Structure formats: C-alpha cells, structure tokens
Amino acid sequence: MAAGALTSGSLVALPAEAGTGPGAFYGQRVQWHGCALNADDTAGTELDAAGAQCADITVPLDYRRPGRRTITVAVSRIKATDPAHRIGPLMINLGGPAIPVRDIIDDAAAAMGPTGAKFDLIGMDVRFSGRSTPIDCGWPASWIPRSAGADRESFDRMVALSKDLAKRCGRTSGDLLAHASSANIARDMDVVRAVLGAPRLSYLGYSYGSYIGAMYTQLFPRNAGRIVLDSAIDPQDAGVHLRDAQGFEKRDALREWATLAAGADGQLGLGDTPEKVLGVIDGIYAAAARTPLKVGRYEVDDTVMPALLVDNLADDNEENALQLASFVVQLRTAADTGRVTPDEALEAAVAGIVGGARSAFHSGQTAIECADAAVPRSVEWYRRDVGSRRAADPLFGTLNRVNPCAFWPAAPAPVVRIGNGTPALIVHADGDLDATPALNRRMHAALTGSRLVTLNGARTHGVYLFRGDGCVDATVNAYLDTGALPAADLTC
C-alpha cells in the first residue's frame, strides 16, 4: 500500500494518490492478507484455515465531505470454491444492528454448501462495529433490552440511565455519531463492491440487516444482485422502532411456554397449570420491583427481569424452552430467598445487560439506531407512552421504550425512504416475535419487485439456514443459484 496504509480500528488518511472525490474510494488498491492478527486470534486463525482472506477498506467518514476524515471497514472473503459456476460476491449481514460478520464467514460457507460455493462470500463488520473503526462510549451497562419497569421510579431510573449513556457517547465519540446511519453502511457496501471489481453485489441480510439490504437497493438499484432479506423489519420504522407494539405476541409466546412448563411440574415445580406458572413469573417481577434480586454479583430489578425472558422466547425449540425454565427457576429462588448463585448462562445473560463488557457492541448498535430515525425528545412523551403500554401489558409492554436516542448529542441522518422495484426475496416465519408478519409484509410492499416466503407454524427469528426447513432453504438456494424469483409469493 502507499502512504496512509489501511489499519483496522483506526482513523486513517485517504491514500494521497486516490484523490478527494467519493469516486476515488472505488478505485483504491487493497491488499488482501491473512486474517489472524496474532497467535491468540482464534477467529482469525480459523478463517485462515478455511482459506479466507481479510482486508481493511477505506471509506469516508462523511460521504458529503469525502476529502476529509476517513475510517476503515474490515472485510473477509472466501472465494468461490466452484469457480466454474461463479456468480460473484455475496455479502452477509446478521443484523443487530452492528453484529460483526468478518470473523464468521467460514461458518456461512459451511452452512450454504453448494450454493455458497458459487459465490465469493463476504463478511463485513459495518462501520463502528467489530474490527472496523469502532465506537465505544465506555458504557457501564446497556439499555437494551430493558423495560421501563413497573412504576414511576423504574421509569425515572431508565431516563437517568439513557441520559448518562447518551452523554458518554457525546464525550467519547461525538464526532462519529452523525455518520453511523444505515445509508452510510449501504454506501460502504458499494465501495466494497467496487473494490472487489464486481458489477453487482448480492446480499443476504437478517433482521435489521434486511433494512440495510433494502437501503442498498434504494441507493444503488443498478448494482444490486440477488437480494435475500430474512426476518425483515418495517423499512418505514427504522431506528429504535417506536411504532412497534409486540408485547402481546411475547405474552402469547410466554403462555405457550408456560403450558409446557406446567406439563413438567414434577421436574420444575413452577405449577401444574399455565396460570400458576405465569403467576410465578408475575411474582418474580413484583419482587424485583420491590427490591432488586441478588443474582451472583449483579442486581436484577424490574427493568432487567423481563429482558431475561425475551431472548429465549424468540425461538420455539426445545433448547430455548429448557433455558427459559432454568432462568425462571433460578430467579424464583432469588425472589424467595433474596439471592441466587446463577449458572453460567444466567450470569452471562445478566452481565450482558447490567455489565460493561459489551460496551462497544451496544454503543455501535445504538449509534446506528439513533442515526437512522428521529425520536421524540420529550421525557413527558415517553412517560405517557410507557403508561399506556404498561397498562396493556405490564411485563413486556415497555421493553426498549426509553432509550438514549431521546437525549442523543447528534442529529439523525436525512431520511431515505425505501420504495423501489428491485427484485428481492423476503423470508420470514409466521410466529416471529421480533420481525412479525406485519413487518415483513410492509417490507414486501415497499419493495414492489419482491416475493414473500412464509414459514408457517414456526416461532423463530432467522429462517434460512438457521431453522433447517427444507422448503425455505431450497427456495432461497434456487433463487441464489439462478437469480429467478418464485412466480408468486409462497408458503412453506
């Protein structure tokens, strides 16, 4: 590389010979290299063993002023292992937003099998995440996926936490926050496409990654290849999704689980009817609202307790059901006795919310959400909103309602409205609690050239490759293999 060599995780100068216009980034020379940074880099070592290559690609911090400051995005590549049928690059995004993908592209290659072998599989850590230039606000705890709790005092604690987290980001990363939008991530993707020398970029995006994929089709329709959006969100409700109201779906899923738990009362001791099991959970919530539960070295109050239930409700498989049962049994012990020594899984779940170990991930995630859409800035608005939602569903109704974006030190990016005819395949499960059928239908309506594939009778988030459904996987693979969408929407 020439002067200004690319360094993951740093702010760098644009190579001098590249010029200063946005098009200059498309022609940059990038050196592919091994992925392991050192002998202790397990993920990088596994990538190297799988034949992957890695690179750090320079992009503008601000696409409106490309001649100024630059950042890097970290990418990995596994070249097509079926070169005779090579289609081109396929970028994978796992949503979050801000879930790093660079280090797991080898897992994607193994999961996709013969279809994946036809693509150069690309993992990109989106700007401000993973091994790309990071945002880390030094957060001691997270607001995700907390609730506003049971009463005014809990609400006030969440307001205070949100204000503090926003203030920390302003102090540590204020000059980066305005540039964290999904639109800029899509622009970074197109720089990567050009650096790869590809006329089109195919894309597989899950959850929030569906919005980034839709954004790419909006900004770069001629450059969009085969687009798969799995468990899609409403493209008109990006950011922190204040339009969402999913408490009832979660409560229904909890009742379904409670029915299973009642059938295993001899083992769990939570009650022999669903109502008794739900009563135990309501009792734990009430106890946490009175006095935080001692869970190992952490405290679990009523803003945290509901958050410990929702992840295991997201999928209806046996493993999640058993994990949720274990959590409820342990939390009941804490409620009854004042404390519990948690198992490794519960301790990790609590630490991920009330500890600071995931500060960088939660900081980058929130920065993207706050950049993607404006939110009300009035505490009174949130007080009214929480009050109505709490009355409708005390346990889950106020999850993720009070957030740092209300106090964010940077304005959101200009709105890019999604609406185009670019072909795309949208896949979802009819029981998804996070990307409900209504949200997927809204993405389908916005992308008028799309087809919608619905997996019936399943509660899961992330269907293709994750669920193991032969109908869904075959449909997606056929589209990726041929580029031909199904003739009509279909149900699996």
UniProtKB/TrEMBL annotation:
This is Peptidase. The lineage of its organism: Bacteria, Bacillati, Actinomycetota, Actinomycetes, Micromonosporales. InterPro entries: AB_hydrolase_1, AB_hydrolase_fold, Pept_S33_TAP-like_C. One of its GO terms (molecular function) is catalytic activity. It comes from Virgisporangium aliadipatigenens. Transmembrane segments: none annotated. SUPFAM superfamilies: alpha/beta-Hydrolases. Residues 109-302 form the AB hydrolase-1 domain. It comes from the Bacteria. Pfam families: Abhydrolase_1, Abhydrolase_4. Residues 401-492 form the Peptidase S33 tripeptidyl aminopeptidase-like C-terminal domain.
